[in-house]
Amino acid sequence: MSIPQQVTKTHATGNDFVVYADPEGTFEPTADEVRFLDDRHFGIGGDGVIRLAHPEDVSDLTPEQVGECRAAGAEWFMDYRNADGSLAQMCGNGTRAITLFAYDRGYAKGDAFRLGTRAGVKILTSLGDVEGLGCNVFRVQMGAWKRGEPDAFEVTIPGTEGSARGTYVDMGNPHVVAVLEDGKATLPAVEHLDLVTKPVVAPVLESDQNVEFVRVDRKDADANEGWATMRVNERGCGETLSCGTGLCATAVTLRAKTGIDHWTITVRGGTLRIEVSDTDVQLIGSATLVGDITLL
C-alpha cells in the first residue's frame, strides 16, 4: 500500500477530505487507493484525498512547476485527488482543510501559509473564529480568474424539465455557473434540483467542468454587498456540500451581472464570503479536523 497507516478526516464547510502528510515523499497514492479511501460505504468517505508533500515529491509536476513553488516560498504542496482517483488542479475548500491540518501538525507556522497547488501558489491567512463563518477561518488568496461571455452555455439536467444559461469561469479548474432567476432559466428552484444526476453543458467544453446553480437572495448596491445560495455538481465527485473554486466562480459571475464585488454565499455545508477584484478572488471560510484514523 502506498498510503500511510494513519490518515486524518477533515472538512471545510462540508466538503470532506481524507488527508495525510508525506514529508519523505514515499506515499503517493494510486487511483485505486484514492477510490478506496473516499468510498463512503467500504472506506472512510470523502470528496477527495489530499497529500501534503514537498513539490519535488509530486510526480506529475514539471521542473518548472516545482521551481515556481520554490520561488514563491511554498515549501509544501497540496497533492489533491478527486474521489474517482483523478488528479485535480485546484480545490479552494481543500486548501483550507490541508492548511488547518498543516498548522495542527506543525508543518505551518505564523499567520500566513504559502501552499503550492497545480493552479499555482495560494496564500492562506488565519483569521481565527469569525462570526457568521465559524471556527478556524482562513482567507485564501485564490489568484487570477478568467471569465467567458456571460450566458454562453445551455445547462440541462437529464430527467429534469427546463434549462438555464451558464457562464464559463476558469479558477484554475473549469466551471459553468447558472443563475436561475435571471429570466432565462426554466429549471426548478435551486432547492429542488436533482444534482445526483450530472448536468449537461452545451456546447461541450474541451474538458469536463463543475456546474454551479445559483439564486440571488439579496443585493445592496450602495454597500457593494450581495447574498446568494448555491449548489454544485463537481466533476469526479458528484454533488458536494461546498466547492471553494465554485463559490469563487459564482461570485465572479454575479459580479458580471450585478456589479457587486462582495458576496456572502450559503451552500449546503455552511456560509462563506467571497471578495472579487479585477485581478484576484479572496475566499473566506472555515475548516475542521474531524479525527485521526488508523488503517488496518
TrEMBL record:
<feature type="binding site">
    <location>
        <position position="82"/>
    </location>
    <ligand>
        <name>substrate</name>
    </ligand>
</feature>
<dbReference type="Pfam" id="PF01678">
    <property type="entry name" value="DAP_epimerase"/>
</dbReference>
<feature type="site" description="Could be important to modulate the pK values of the two catalytic cysteine residues">
    <location>
        <position position="234"/>
    </location>
</feature>
<keyword id="KW-0413">Isomerase</keyword>
<feature type="active site" description="Proton donor">
    <location>
        <position position="91"/>
    </location>
</feature>
<dbReference type="GO" id="GO:0005829">
    <property type="term" value="C:cytosol"/>
</dbReference>
<comment type="similarity">
    <text>Belongs to the diaminopimelate epimerase family.</text>
</comment>
<comment type="pathway">
    <text>Amino-acid biosynthesis; L-lysine biosynthesis via DAP pathway; DL-2,6-diaminopimelate from LL-2,6-diaminopimelate: step 1/1.</text>
</comment>
<keyword id="KW-0457">Lysine biosynthesis</keyword>
<keyword id="KW-0963">Cytoplasm</keyword>
<dbReference type="InterPro" id="IPR001653">
    <property type="entry name" value="DAP_epimerase_DapF"/>
</dbReference>
<feature type="binding site">
    <location>
        <position position="173"/>
    </location>
    <ligand>
        <name>substrate</name>
    </ligand>
</feature>
<keyword id="KW-0028">Amino-acid biosynthesis</keyword>
<comment type="subunit">
    <text>Homodimer.</text>
</comment>
<feature type="binding site">
    <location>
        <position position="210"/>
    </location>
    <ligand>
        <name>substrate</name>
    </ligand>
</feature>
<comment type="function">
    <text>Catalyzes the stereoinversion of LL-2,6-diaminopimelate (L,L-DAP) to meso-diaminopimelate (meso-DAP), a precursor of L-lysine and an essential component of the bacterial peptidoglycan.</text>
</comment>
<feature type="active site">
    <location>
        <position position="91"/>
    </location>
</feature>
<dbReference type="GO" id="GO:0009089">
    <property type="term" value="P:lysine biosynthetic process via diaminopimelate"/>
</dbReference>
<feature type="site" description="Could be important to modulate the pK values of the two catalytic cysteine residues">
    <location>
        <position position="175"/>
    </location>
</feature>
<protein>
    <recommendedName>
        <fullName>Diaminopimelate epimerase</fullName>
        <ecNumber>5.1.1.7</ecNumber>
    </recommendedName>
</protein>
<dbReference type="InterPro" id="IPR018510">
    <property type="entry name" value="DAP_epimerase_AS"/>
</dbReference>
<feature type="binding site">
    <location>
        <begin position="244"/>
        <end position="245"/>
    </location>
    <ligand>
        <name>substrate</name>
    </ligand>
</feature>
<feature type="binding site">
    <location>
        <begin position="92"/>
        <end position="93"/>
    </location>
    <ligand>
        <name>substrate</name>
    </ligand>
</feature>
<feature type="active site" description="Proton acceptor">
    <location>
        <position position="243"/>
    </location>
</feature>
<dbReference type="GO" id="GO:0008837">
    <property type="term" value="F:diaminopimelate epimerase activity"/>
</dbReference>
<feature type="binding site">
    <location>
        <begin position="234"/>
        <end position="235"/>
    </location>
    <ligand>
        <name>substrate</name>
    </ligand>
</feature>
<feature type="binding site">
    <location>
        <position position="15"/>
    </location>
    <ligand>
        <name>substrate</name>
    </ligand>
</feature>
